[in-house]
Amino acid sequence: MSHAWEQTSNKNVILTSLEKLVAWGRKHSLWPYAFATSCCASEFAATQAADFDLARFGIEMAHFSPKQADLLLVLGTVTCKQAPILKQIYDQMPEPKWVISVGACASSGGAYRNYSTVQGIDGLIPVDIYVPGCPPRPEAILEAVVQLQNKIEADGFARDRGESTGERLSLLEAESYHGKVIATTKREAARKHTDGVKRQLL
Amino acid sequence: MSQAVLGELQRNFPEAVIDTHEHCGDETIILRPEGLIPMTTFLRERLGFDMLLDICGNDHPDKEQRFEAIYHFLRTGHSASRTRKWKRIRLKIPVGENEHIPSLCEQYKSANWLERETWDLFGIPFEGHPDLRRLLTHWKFEGHPLRKDYDKEKRQHLDESAPNDWFRVRAGVLEKGGETILANIGPAHPLTKGMFRMVTELDGEFIRDADLEIGYLHRGMEKEAEAHTWGMVLPYAERLNDHSAQINTSAYALAVEKLAGIEVPERAQWLRMFMAEMSRIMDHCLCLGNTLADMGAMTNFWYFFKIREACSNILDNFTGARLTGNCDRIGGFAWDVYDGFEEDAKELAPIIADYLGDAEELILTNRIFLDRSIGVGCITRKDAISYGLTGPVARAAGVQYDVRKIMPYHLYDQVDFEIVVGVRGDVHERVMVRLEEIRQSLRIMEQILVYLRKTRGTPILADVRDITLPTKRKAYTSMEAMIRHYNVVTCGERIPDGEAYGYVEGANGELGFYLVSDGAGHPQRCHVRSPSLANLQAFVSMVRGSQLADAVATFGSLNIVSGELDR
Lengths: 202, 567
Fold this sequence. Notes:
The complex is a heterodimer of chains A (202) and B (567). With 202 residues, chain A is an alpha/beta fold.
């Protein structure tokens, strides 16, 4: 994807389209609503903490208000009792909004297949990115955020025009992971992640 | 000596008692429903059993009286009894369909929610209960899910949440004039963190009364446990209190080993204790970080999370996962230490002490913290015992109960440490108790490292034919071991018939597993005695009359973990 500033004629003028500019702004300033229910919330808190620092991706302003959020992060198991609440929160969020389903429980019910657990939130609300794991490592959550940023950039104004935004991107299907072995140790994951981020910024 | 209590009860209640027995170290009395109130009065007033730890139900469809209500009592050292010796006892009441059991709400404050849960999951009606509503399943749920004839996958979807008048608070009129308002708080609210919903009757900022709805994370763990083999329940147990995951698995494994009579090798016990203490530190750090952040002190959150990261790194290198490692097995531990474990573990203490010191410095003499925590959310020792509180919340109120010291399990009687007890029972004491407990846990971990060095090379998994797994090397090379592996994993562990209650000191208090085996490869009943449930039940009494902001501080200091609360 070529970036706006590659089309400059001189250093002080950037030629771009409104779509690309708005997409750039949206993807770098996602305001999250952390719908935290269970264990994944602890890993999300670790992702926000100093070692992984979610804030450097722009996901900083966590006001606990759906009306001031555009990214809904569902962290943990959603039970039948919690389902109407999730729907209400999603409905209250203004457009454009995106959903990341973090963890196995939110994506598919996880290890719980019984009378009280919703088998995946995509039956309730549309999901953009699924993050597998129980719980996913903070690196995986960061990768999901980066994939979502790619998706936002690719979508542009499609949502505002009312167009469908195509296939839901699964973390494991996303381009950058094709053919790669998923890291096995934390050090390796950190190194791969840094390499991946470097490649996307350049 | 141990038969003394059982004998005394049998003598005093000859018609009510059906049977008594002792199994796996637990004393049980089986009695008729009409004998419950007289016996519990006797237990409480004469024998000093002042804490009702747990009530649960069980279902034996093949028996004539298919249901059972099981009560676990504890005599604390604070009771006004002759002996003041800590002791446990179990009562079981068999009932048929729709037969009532008298409610214990008047005698023990902890009975309220426990009876509601048993009614919700089994349908055993408790006569005289002031408020018999569902606790864990939703308000439109039909049926009783833990009955054996309820299909595990029969989901009942919910379209809308319970209306405000499902709760037991009503807006009222004030004496000074004016009215109170009903405010709904949660479950999607920074205070509640998704785990409960509170409808409060507010007089301005002051809470006159409140009613809670929990069960927002009721994931049916106990029903899942009945459908999985004994070893496969470990990951479910682990995700109960996700802040301190390794304590949960060691508690469950301990309970199974108690039931089966397995002796765990010494090195495995040291490893379990090391992981448990590290998990305790992680849990306290998360609790303190959250509590202080809720009060506005954000910096401590980062410092406490650095401590968590240091512990997570060790867990990661040990088990491959940062949070839920599942390193316990029935009969021992899964893996031995990795190369470099000792260096990492030795580095842990100074790192933790460093960040802990930084975090403490910010709050110990901070005027805002002291104003927001001293005298806030108080509970007396008597109330704490009546509500069944255990753990740091109870110790802050002056209850000198730490399972590791009073009824030592694993090898806690071989390490030196102190239990931390407070006086006032308010938020400040709870924070201080947890801070000091982190230091005591570090002290224990240092001593364990010495023992780990001494026991290097010794086995970490017991060798019991139909229960524990063979080592991987044997399973891949020997036919008998492969068959044994297949039997244990696929057909389930052959745990002998019986029941046992295994308990440990979780980060929030006494975490217990009541297990019943009928010889099948999976539990007939697996009930979790949840410390968070007891703690949250006392919440309304702690905040009645105080301001909403105080409720925020109080709730944080209770460290309610939703996985453990709702199971």
